[in-house]
Amino acid sequence: MIIRLVLGFTLFYFGWKKIKGTGDSSGSNSPVYGGIEMFISIFLIVGLFTQIAALLNVIILLIKLGFKAKQGKLLNDGINYYILLLVMALSLMFTGPGFFAFDIFA
Question: DSSP secondary structure string, 12-61?
Answer without folding.
Answer: HHHHHHHHHT----SS---HHHHHHHHHHHHHHHHTSSHHHHHHHHHHHH
